[in-house]
Amino acid sequence: MSATAVDHAATQASSSTSLEAAKRNLQFLYDPNSPNAPTRRRTQALLRTLRYIGKFLFWRLVRYAKYAAVGAITAAIAGTAIGSVASGAAFVIAPTGIVGGAGVGLLWGLGKFGWRTLARKVRSGEAHDSDARADEKAEEQKTETIKPPKMDEPW
């Protein structure tokens, strides 16, 4: 074999191993628990770090997209006849200022807490722990007869 043929064979062998290493690294990047992990710890750490950074950036972009969608919907509603009729609803959907946002957030959090607490009570049966007929009988027994005041007692 000539020198160029040997160099060509070596180049193909190294490119195929590089391709296999790249495939293995991408598979590890996609699923760190995969059995085809890179052999070097430094490569594993780098790929894990890239995975976490990628996930963080993806969810941050999703969050900002949600904010943009809510803003666009708010602006679209405010520009219609519904927005002119229910102008106060815009403050609830998108409050102005830090204090307004904190107030609406606090109300939303309290409502969410109350709703979850009520749902938990209903699921556990605490909300409906008695029978209506038994309640009526207990009320009948609790009723006292009203006695008229005696004439010698002061009001």
Automatic annotation (TrEMBL):
Region of interest (Disordered), residue spans: 124-155
Transmembrane segments: 64-83, 89-111
Domain of life according to the entry: Eukaryota
UniProt keyword list: Membrane, Transmembrane, Transmembrane helix
Protein name as annotated: Transmembrane protein
